[in-house]
Design brief:
- The protein is α+β, with helices and mostly antiparallel strands and 702 residues long.
- 23% of the residues lie in helices and 46% in strands.
- It is built from twelve helices and 33 strands.
- The chain has a 31-stranded mixed sheet that branches. The chain has a two-stranded antiparallel ribbon with strand order 7-8.
- The longest helix has 44 residues.
- The protein is elongated and about 160 Å long.
Length: 702
């Protein structure tokens, strides 16, 4: 009897199990056929589209029960703006589910065990008007988002809590397409892998992230720990942000690849190098901090490689959005380069505090300080190799939005370099206050000692971005030793003296052979205690005048010409000029005084020393008296002698038209002599007449 009852129990148990097996098989078949998959797709896609404000599409949605429940959305994408690639796309979005709650509720009770995003791609696009494709994302669905809580049967608000056992991103990437600058799509970040366990609101977080920044190999690692994530976005506020700790590491970032993502005005400066850095993430008084250090290796700034190091510090206030980042103890050493300094960036709060009046937003401020013993411009600003020279680009045109952004920047700093060198040109004690304007360095206050004198270069502008660095030199010169300067620049000293003046010149590059052909601008110069060392203008002028006077029988042929010293003393030389086509064109005649008198010359002086000058030399009365040798010629206050200079400063050719000047002098003297004779005859006649009248009166008295 007992055996019969046991047998019946076994048969019933087998039957029940069989029924359950049949039901499970039927359920699996039902779930595999697609209704639940379609339901998932129909529910997820519209809500995602509404939340993002962009169309979300999914090529396929499927639900698999065995070996473990998994919902997979394949070929999902978030639409971009018209004419642009998708904002985001991914190969698949997999959600692993707990089996029993899903079976028990016939698909209504969904509990997440894991989330996996496979090969997501984010395309960041900047349009020609300067706007980015992520602008306005989520705005359309902000008001229609589902509420986080629901009401229970007693009307009390209850909150559903979702905890994801494991979340992962595999093989993600970020691409950049800048249509404003006309660049092609570039891979900014690739091989993004993210792994986090037990992810949920109100839960602690442990996450690991790795990626390849601007390269094929992974070079960025991060580990982030949160004591507890917030219960909801509404619970966030001052003092209620999660406490974060962790560490960051960057290994072998290739600066040459980073150039593709920098502003056009910066890409020409940096041509290569690597960065390694390590930092710690911490939370201090409700603010997030990053503190670390880094190394620079094989850094190329137009010249030979340099090495360096730096410390980095950053602070973010999550409540206001205000942030500050500082790079200090920066040191960079290499051929022709030994500099240090610091850089800080201050971002203003992104949200206005309660009660704060509306007004102009605070600007983003950038401060920098550069100091060191040496900067060799010949090394640092050397030309790019021919094969690396960038192609000619269209002029950069800023959009209205970009102009507003640029105006909102406040970039200022100081420069203090003991020695700035270009070949034999050396400026010492260079100090300046500078600002960065659209990628160019502008010196607002700058001065240096230069060849025994002083240069004030306030207003000078240096743009390092072009292949040939462009500059606008505004300089006031005080007592510069012109002989030393010419010797360093050209290797010779055809002119010496103390030079004072002002220059406003534009050029590109630092190679004088190339530079002098394209230099433009204007200037005014004065020379004290100067001399032209390559010819004796006084000897040439007075020698020619003396020869003509002697030939006319009016000269005394002095044994030594006055002022003949083998060079030309230039007293109080003054000139105003414009620079163009490789020459200084005199805006006003160049004037100077010399022992023989004075001179006034117009025309051009080539930047290579070529001479094309025409004018007059005015020989003084005292000098003329010594030339006539007492020949009885009336001496005027001065004699204007036509004078021309050709050749070069190193080998000048002097052309003196003494015949014209002396002919006028002799003709004038003859006319004066005739007038004197006529006056003498008339005077004798008057005397004779008076004498005759006197004799007649005497006879009448008798």
């Amino acid at each position: 009897m007992a055996r019969a009852r046991g047998s019946r129990v076994v048969r019933i148990a087998v039957a029940v199990v069989g029924v359950f097996v049949i039901m499970l098989v039927a359920l699996v078949l039902l779930l595999q056929t697609g209704p639940v998959s379609r339901r998932v797709k129909d529910l997820v896609v519209p809500r995602a589209s509404a939340a993002l404000g962009r169309e979300v599409t999914v090529q396929d949605a499927s639900l698999r029960i065995l070996p473990r429940p998994r919902v997979s959305l394949a070929g999902a994408s978030v639409a971009g703006r018209p004419g642009e690639p998708p904002l985001a796309e991914l190969e698949s979005f997999d959600v692993s589910l707990e089996l029993w709650p899903l079976v028990r509720s016939l698909g209504k009770d969904v509990r997440v065990e894991g989330i996996r995003l496979v090969k997501p791609i984010v395309n960041l696009v900047r349009a020609p008007d300067g706007s980015w494709n992520y602008r306005g994302l989520g705005a359309a669905g902000a008001e229609g988002e589902p509420k986080a809580d629901s009401r229970g049967g007693d009307g009390v608000a209850t909150r559903s809590k979702v905890v994801v056992g494991h979340a992962a991103i595999e093989g993600g990437s970020i691409k950049l397409l800048d249509r404003l600058g006309g660049s092609q799509a570039a891979l900014a970040v690739s091989k993004i892998d993210l792994s986090a366990d037990h992810v949920g609101l109100g839960e602690p977080l442990d996450a690991k992230l790795s990626a390849a920044l601007a390269g094929e190999q992974k070079n960025f690692l991060a580990e982030i720990h949160a004591s507890q994530l917030p219960e909801s976005a509404a619970s966030l506020g001052p003092g209620r942000y999660p406490e974060l700790t962790g560490k960051l590491a960057l290994e072998g970032l290739d600066l040459a690849r980073v150039r593709a993502f920098l502003p056009p005005k910066v890409t020409g400066i940096m041509t290569g190098g690597q960065v390694n850095a390590d930092a710690k993430l911490s939370t201090d008084a409700g603010k997030y901090r990053v503190d670390g250090s880094g190394r620079l290796s094989q850094v190329r700034l137009r010249g030979e490689p340099a090495q360096g190091s730096f410390d980095v510090h950053a602070v973010l206030d999550p409540a206001s959005g205000a942030a500050r980042a500082t790079i200090d103890k920066l040191a960079l050493k290499g051929p022709g380069l030994d500099l240090g300094g610091n850089l800080s960036v201050q971002l203003p709060p992104s949200a206005r505090s309660p009660g704060e009046k509306a007004g102009a937003a605070a600007p983003t401020t950038v401060r920098f300080a550069i100091a060191g013993p040496l900067l060799d411009l010949g090394q640092v600003m050397g030309l790019l190799p021919q094969e690396q020279a960038p192609k000619e680009e269209k002029p950069l045109q800023l959009t209205a939005e970009q102009r507003r952004s640029v105006k909102a920047l406040d970039v200022q700093g100081t420069i203090d370099i003991e020695k700035v060198v270009k070949g034999a040109l050396v400026a010492s004690g260079f100090k300046a206050k500078a600002a960065l304007e659209q990628g160019a360095l502008v010196l607002n206050d700058a001065h240096a000692d230069f060849f025994g004198g002083r240069v004030d270069a306030a207003g000078t502008r240096l743009d390092l971005a072009p292949a040939l660095p462009a500059w606008n030199l505004k300089a006031k010169l005080d007592a510069i030793d012109l002989g030393q300067a010419l010797s360093a620049l050209a290797g010779s000293t055809p002119v010496v003296g103390k030079m004072t003046g002002a220059l406003d010149l534009q050029g590109a590059g630092v190679d004088w052979t190339t530079l002098k052909k394209a230099l433009t601008g204007q200037g005014a110069l004065a020379l004290k205690e100067g001399a032209l060392t390559t010819t004796d203008l006084g000897g040439n002028v007075l020698g020619a005048v003396s020869q003509v006077l002697t030939a006319a029988g009016k000269g005394g042929a002095p044994s030594k010409l006055p002022g003949a010293t083998g060079k030309t003393e230039l007293r109080d030389l003054a000139a105003q000029f414009t620079v163009k086509d490789g020459a200084m064109s005199l805006a006003k005649p160049l004037t100077f005084t010399a022992p023989f008198g004075a001179a006034s010359l117009g025309g051009k002086i080539g930047l290579g020393g070529e001479l094309a000058l025409q004018g007059n030399a005015n020989v003084s009365k005292e000098t003329l008296q010594s030339l006539t040798g007492g020949a009885g010629i009336p001496i005027p206050a001065g004699l204007s002698v036509p004078l021309g200079l050709s050749g070069s400063l190193a080998q000048p050719a002097v052309n003196v038209n003494a015949e014209q000047a002396v002919a006028g002098l002799v003709t004038g003297a003859a006319r004066q002599k005739g007038e004197e004779l006529k006056q003498n005859v008339q005077e004798r006649a008057r005397r004779e007449a008076r004498r005759g009248l006197g004799d007649a009166l005497k006879r009448l008295r008798k």
